[in-house]
Amino acid sequence: MPLLRPEPSLEKLPKPRAMEELTGIDPTMLAQLLGERTEPAIIRGLVADWPATQQCQRSLGDAASYLSRFWTQQPVTAYVTEPGSETRLFYNEDCTGFNFRRGAAPLHQVFQKLNEHSKDEKPPVIYVGSSMVDKFLPGFRAENDLPMTGVEPLVSAWLGNESRISAHYDFPLNIACVVAGRRRFTVFPPDQLKNLYVGPVDVTPAGQPISLVDFERPDLARFPRFAKAMAQAQVAELAPGDAIFIPGMWWHHVASLSKFNMLVNYWWLDTPDYLGSPSSALLHAILALKSLPKAKRKQWQALFEHYVFEAESDAFAHIPEAGRGVLGEVDRALANQLRAELINKLK
Questions:
Q1: Which of 149, 216, 329, 335 is the most buried (most CB within 10 A)?
Q2: Is this prediction's pTM over 0.90?
Q3: How many angstroms separate the CA atoms of 288 and 46, rounded?
């Protein structure tokens, strides 16, 4: 009789440590205080007084009625799995596609489907991701907002039933506020990239590369270094009204644990937006450098170290300041000029 392969056990993994909780935070100083942090943190009750928090945690009908006051009738982007499938929004078997369908739907139809499946033992995942509040719910922030002085955040709403979003990173700083339902965030420092077994960078569920590890059933035979990642992990269990701060580039796995969940998050940059996205630079580097012979890649690595990653040293002090060009301070005009040159070269 063949031996049965044992189920992967969470008991074999290190337990993530509880995340630090901040108290006595002045909401008007959020961006400044958190922008100086290099670690994630929980802020209990940050949005507990929002009318949305009060209304949306009462019932699905109350949430639908409240949000319909602001909805512009524009269809939102919704992700739906088959009934009875797992709650993880993920790839298909060979990472060439996904286990969900993506489409546009009116918000009232999303709530109708959530209600239809609310008593199912294994309902389909119904998930509305990253919808800009000012576009889809104008007026919402007049009643529900954080006083983010000194920055201009991108504010997005997320809602749906139970789901799991694989560990991924975001470049901006992030405050995520739980309006309804319970959420669990498991976060990892940026240096855990290798231990999270990240999937493709060009075919992704929602724009960012994700970990291929199933956090509920981790296959440690296939992903043995995941145990090292969990040894560095922090966990946050959030209730309605709570918020979490996630520094840029920290990996985070998000589990929505209730039959109805809603979250509003604030993304902002601590660098000028005209400098562009580092993700674009990464893709270009993969295109231009990854296939070079190893010796050549090492040579280019030295150039990147000198011109990019050690740029805060005195590496360019020998060049007169007026003649440093892109090696000096890059303002909007110089950034636009450089971007135009890059576009020309990429043609």
A1: 335
A2: yes
A3: 45
